[in-house]
Each structure stands twice: as C-alpha cells, then as structure tokens.
Design a protein that fits this description.
The protein is mostly helical. 56% of the residues lie in helices and 6% in strands. The protein folds into three domains: 13-72, no CATH class; 75-354, Fic-like fold; 372-443, Arc Repressor Mutant, subunit A, CATH 1.10.10.10. The strands form three sheets. Strands 5-7-6 form a three-stranded antiparallel sheet.
Length: 445
C-alpha cells in the first residue's frame, strides 16, 4: 500500500504527430531537442512544469523529446497484456551510470581486502544478506527493527510473528540465490524462490510458489486511498510470460547486446509488472535482480543492499514503475532510478569498508605502544584484527616465528589471559580463536 498517485498519462507520440502542423514540425526538428532536459530524463508529468523553448508549447516540446527518444529506443521481449512491447533507451545519464557501476562492481580495483580476503569475505556477505533481507521485507510492510531481526537470524531462534517470518524467509531466499547464482533461471526456480519468500506468511499456504490461476481474483497494486495503481496481465498469460522472462534473464533474448546491469534491472521490473503471485512479488523481484547480477559476474552485488536505499524513498521507487507504465511502456525511467540506487549502495559499501579499515589501522597503531606484548604477539594481533575468527595453535605460532613450543604456548596463553584470544578444544588438543569483537577489546585495554 502506498499514498502515491498515478502520474498524468504522457501524450502519445503518434497522436501528437497528427495534431502538429507541418511548419511547427519543421521548427521542432530545427531545435535539435535532446531526450533529456538539463541532464534529466523527465516524464510528461514533470516536464509540463518546466518552461518550453521559445515558440513551442509544452505538447510540441514533448513531441520533440519523444522524437529523440523513439529514435534511440530498443524493443524488449516484455509486452503488456495487449501485446505491445516495452522499450528501453541509452541516453547519456544511463551510459554514465552504467560506466560507474562497471568501474566499481565487477573488477577488484580499490576494493577493500575485507571483502577479497577469504577469511573475512563470508562475514560481510552474511551481513549484507541480512541487511537486504530486512530492508526488502520492510518495503513490503515488515515492522521488526533491524536490531531485533539481526538477533533472530544470528541466534537461530524461531520467528515470533509474521513480520519476523518475512525477514527470515527473505534471508533464506537471498542465501538460495547465492547458492544457485551460476545456474540458469527457470520458472521452477522462480517458483521455488517465491515459496521460500512466502513460507508460512500467506492466508492460503498452497499459494506459496504457485502462479495465480484464471479462476481466482487477480491481484492489483492499490494506493492507501484504494486507487488502483497497477493491474497486471491476465493469469492465463502467466506461464508463457514467465518462460519469456527466463529466456530474457538468461541472455537468450534479445539478440542484440544488452548490458548485464540493465538486464538485471529489467528482470526486476518484469516480474513486478507481471505480479504472477498472490503476494511477495516485490521481494521475489528484488531477489531475482541479485540473481541476474551475480550470474553475469557482478560479484560485488553480494555485498550491497539495494533495498536499504529503496526504503529511504519508497515513493520514488514506486513512481519509477508508474512513469514507465504511463509513457508508452518506456522502462528507461525505472532503469535510471535503479542505476542510481545501485551506485548509492556501492558508495555506501565503500564508505563502510573505509571506516572498518581505518578502525583496524588505528588499533594497529595503538598496539605499537603496548609494551606488555612482544613482537610475536603484536604480529598475531595484527593478523587477528584483519581475520576475525582466525584459529591459532601452539604449533602454528611456533612455526611462524621459529620459537620453542613453550615460548609459543606462553605467548598464546598471555593473549588468552588478557581476553584477546578465546580458547577452544578439539579432542585432546586446544586452539585459540580471534574473537569477533577484538577491536573493541583492544580499545578497552
């Protein structure tokens, strides 16, 4: 439910062409009107509030903009219920944002060792999975706080209500996507993904993982005032539409090159547009977006939570859908908005990682002044800071520093006594583990 109103329907290009006289058409074409105004890909509902070029009405100005957009539009295999194709375009803002994402999300340049180091990578993946699970559920009405939700997931306790169940299901769904990221997306896997997302949250449990059927009332997206914002295609079309979605998601269509990030965004749009399930369509669509990104090699997508950004302005997210539906099925609005969201999410990840690395470096600096520790212990603590959960034994420490077993044992036992290592037993042998909160423990020395 949302308070958003439907944007004013954009005048159709072919109707404008018929109403504008030939002299005015020549004038419009002489203006060399671009697809964007002041760098923005504006919808008619926004453009009508701007001042048009001298000598042109708003409708004539819109025709000039649409003319430039139509000439660069690419058809998609996604169609509306009447068989009319959706399109996407590549204006300058799209090219610029895709380039930024390519720089930051597919290669390893300037990426923190915290996410490239195998010993810490999984910790950050799990943290990101939790963040996306929580915020994606909050977009759909879950009210559980982030703190409580993370405690539930980490402790493994059962969810206490529907809100917590939604979040836990989303966490399992994101883990499912990660597990199957190299596989082809199929209707069966999408239905399984939806079953995970909606497990024990639906009024009819049998609806989990099942497409809506022609004999049931079709779901609609409505505002909080009861206005219908979106009516999805008839249920009779859903099986074939999902097959087409999978062909598109797997890169089998269209034949021309489509940038993988744009493909992932349109996969997100497509499933949400079709709304094939009785509930959980948004959460399933966002999980599919991640699947598509990971499948095409954007490994950093594992570490970003797009829904965290979306929850900051849910009306903008909804409006991006509506703009595409109310301007001749032009998905460029949705593409542009989501490219911006991805960039924001990546920037937030980089800021977070810089903060964490700065913390580690500051603590390493503090350690140099700790005269109670010898050089070997300082080296071990430096390693432990960068590798939470790392395991050390008397033998591993001995061989690393070429000392006797007794010296090695004394080093480790002192660190344990100062609560900087935790001791564990495996059979008759004991080992030492770097605690997750080691930075805090060192700060409190």
């Amino acid at each position: 439910m949302t308070t958003l109103k439907i944007p004013l329907e954009a005048p159709e290009f072919h109707k404008l062409f018929q109403e504008i006289d030939s002299d005015q058409l020549r004038r419009i074409f002489s203006e060399d009107i671009k697809p964007c105004h002041s760098g923005k890909y504006l919808h008619w509902d926004d453009l009508r509030h701007h001042t048009p070029p001298e000598g042109l009405s708003h409708r004539e100005w819109w025709f000039g903009i649409k003319f430039s957009r139509v000439n660069m539009a690419h058809p998609l295999p996604l169609e509306d219920a009447n068989g009319r194709a959706f399109t996407y375009s590549m204006p300058d803002p799209v090219l610029e944002r895709v380039h930024k994402i390519d720089q930051r999300a597919s290669g390893r340049i300037e990426i923190s060792e915290l996410v490239t180091n195998p010993s810490t990578r999984d910790r950050y993946v799990i943290s990101s999975l939790m963040e996306e699970a929580i915020t994606s559920s909050q977009l759909e009405g879950a009210t559980t706080s982030r703190l409580v939700a993370k405690e539930m997931i980490r402790s493994g306790r059962p969810p206490r209500d529907k809100s917590e169940r939604m979040i836990l299901n989303n966490y399992y769904a994101m883990a499912f996507v990660r597990q199957h990221q190299r596989e082809k997306i199929t209707p069966e896997l999408i239905r399984e993904l939806h079953r995970i997302v909606t497990d024990r949250t639906l009024d009819d449990p049998k609806a989990a993982g099942r497409l809506q059927s022609p004999d049931e009332k079709r779901v609609q997206v409505v505002s909080s005032q009861g206005e219908v914002l979106h009516t999805p295609p008839p249920a009779e079309q859903l099986p074939k539409r999902m097959e087409a979605l999978c062909r598109f998601a797997n890169g089998e269509e269209p034949e021309e090159f489509l940038h993988p990030v744009i493909r992932a965004i349109i996969v997100h749009f497509w499933l949400a547009y079709d709304h094939p399930f009785v509930d959980g369509n948004g959460r399933t669509a966002r999980a599919l977006f991640y699947w598509s990104m990971l499948r095409h090699g954007y490994w950093l997508a594992e570490f970003v939570a797009i829904s965290k950004i979306l929850t900051n302005a849910p009306s903008q997210y909804a409006r991006a859908y509506l703009y595409s539906e109310t301007d001749s099925r032009d998905t460029t609005y949705f593409v542009l908005y989501n490219l911006r969201v991805i960039i924001r999410a990546i920037e937030e990840l980089h800021q977070y990682l810089r903060r964490k690395m700065s913390e580690v470096q500051k603590i390493e600096g503090l350690l140099k002044d700790k005269t109670e520790f010898n050089r070997r212990q300082l080296d071990l603590l430096g390693h432990a800071l960068r590798n939470p959960g790392a395991i050390y034994t008397v033998e591993s420490h001995r061989s690393s520093h070429n000392v006797t077993k007794q010296t090695s044992r004394t080093d480790l036992q002192k660190l344990e006594k100062r609560k900087l290592l935790a001791r564990g037993m495996l059979g008759k042998a004991y080992y030492f583990v770097s605690p997750e909160d080691l930075p805090e423990r060192l700060r409190n020395l």
